[in-house]
What does this fold into?
Amino acid sequence: MSLIHLQEVTKTYNTAGVPVAALKNLSLSIERQTFVSFIGPSGSGKSTLLNLIGTLDKPTGGKVLVDGVDVATLNRSDAAAFRGNTIGFVFQNFNLIPVLNVYENVEYPLLMLKHVPVKERRERILNLLDKVGMLDQKDKYPNQISGGQKQRVAVARALVTNPKIVLADEPTANLDHATAFKVISIMHEMQKTFGTTFVFSTHDPKIVGEAELIYTLEDGFIINNGRKEQNRSTR
Amino acid sequence: MRNLIKIAVRNLFRYNRRTLLTSSLIAFGVVLVIVFGGLAISFKTQMVGVITNTALGDLQIHKKGYVESIDNLPLNLSLSESEYAAVEQVLREMPEVEAYSPRIKFGAMISNYAQTSNIRLSAIRPEMEQKTVTDLVKRIKNDSAESGAFLRPGEIVVPENLMKGLGLNIGDEIVLIATNKDGSVNGIPVRISGVIESVLGPMGKDGYIHITDAMALLRMDKAEIIEIAVKLKRFEELGNVYQTLKRSFDSAESVAEVHTWEELSPFSSVARIVDLLIIVVKFILISIVLVSILNIMTMSVFERVAEIGTIAAIGTPPGRILSMFLLEGFSMGLLSTAGGVLVGLGIIWLMNFTRINFRFGPMDVSLAPSIPASEVIVTMVIVMLVSLFASFHPAYKAARMEPVDALGHV
Ligand SMILES: Nc1ncnc2c1ncn2[C@@H]1O[C@H](COP(=O)(O)OP(=O)(O)O)[C@@H](O)[C@H]1O
Ligand SMILES: [Mg+2]
It folds into this structure.
């Protein structure tokens, strides 16, 4: 069974009584250990889709199965625990915790998991900080590092719990092109190293190059999907 | 837990100025409670001490019905020799009782052969009186320097105001005239051996004579005791001893009644007002803490919506978010009280150097304030509980936030 499975998913928002369909009857499967990207213009439904996969929201219709779990059945606490164990997040605005330094930010998700021994925690954190190239900055606070550096820390934080999936909603939207590219390649490298499934979204066609599988979203529909090679040939 | 505390405290100091301001406000409230409490409690203790140690004693025992008509100083409501012996027996068996002193109280005329005035008299056994109201001698200016005998048979100690009013001097001979309970009038000469400064309360204007003189004046064959003042070893036992005595006097065959100093002195209402004021000040503190913690925590939550969304998204369960904010409010309360207690105790310590002197009615008061540890602890506990309580609503709001909505909030 696929790691992520969406079956005829619809999501409708009600804004002041007016229904807005953000996802329309969307079905797709994402396999383990893949590097997947959703591309589409603003308002096409990327965030909505990632929120559903991330168990942050529930579909209006259809089923969302993540690692075999129907997200609609999770209550708030279960969903939090499920995310803590299974999903890592990277956000557009980095969302590091300002009162924690780089090391402590990466450590934070581990505090929620009781079964990881202290020594292993430390090793994992240092190893990840090393891999994203932030080891020498580990005592700095978020307001002392650049956007690109913040996002690298965020990638380390997303991976520290050894999740099956890392979701990144427009992780490069606030970065310049060179930095964006660097962050994406770090993510790709991590994906290869840890075998984690990475799902990221972007509205910038230039940075999807790294993805193995690219879905194009428009108006709540997937209008195109396929391997990079195919995708390129259609352009 | 350690990490939660770390995050809570760091979040507090994130908005330095705001935290400092709120914290000072709470600390100010704590200082208010401690300093006011210290002053009020020491004022009360001192007053109560003056009243019980110079005049009333801690408890008094009378014939049943005496206190009801105490204003008339009725001579017929006295304890007979056997009734007094029975009461004495009870008092001797009580380990809490330090001393007791039998008194005959009555109204008389005092005359210097030229002028006459009224006087209320306490006829006492000096050695027993001195053990019971230990500070009495301090208020008496005596001609006989020897201690232990501030009053001998044939002598009288006259209150200050009467001395002045009648133009009397120590050493003068005067005459006491009184009517006994059968209505016959008698007089005896006595020598003024001392002056007593007035003390607060109904006994403030009492003169003192020896019990044997009173017996002669009132033509008693045997002492008919009107009042027994009782001193306890520990003032804190007052309630217990009172209840025990009350129970033993409640039986039908007993003719005695017992009252605490509170029931006998008008100052007890002042003491109650002081207690009430302390409570009022505590309520002010509670309101300060409630409003300021509620305010600062509500601000904290609403400023950090996106952050709450983040930690919720990355797996922080709602309960933990709740405790994070509760802990933040609690730490705020804790730090503020700690500061307030230090400053408050510091002020009390300084006041002990300078001392606060003033007159309360006829009494010179010199306050060296101190506050019982229990009061300090109660104050701290109040602040911390109220801090928790005030944090609950904002913390609950934070815990109830939907991560998607919170994340979308910038
Ligand atoms: N919380 C919301 N309430 C109402 N409408 C929403 C909400 N979130 C998204 N939408 C709408 O759903 C559509 C898809 O939005 P979104 O998933 O954020 O797209 P994208 O992330 O690709 O920009 C848009 O039309 C947007 O206006
Ligand atoms: Mg979006």
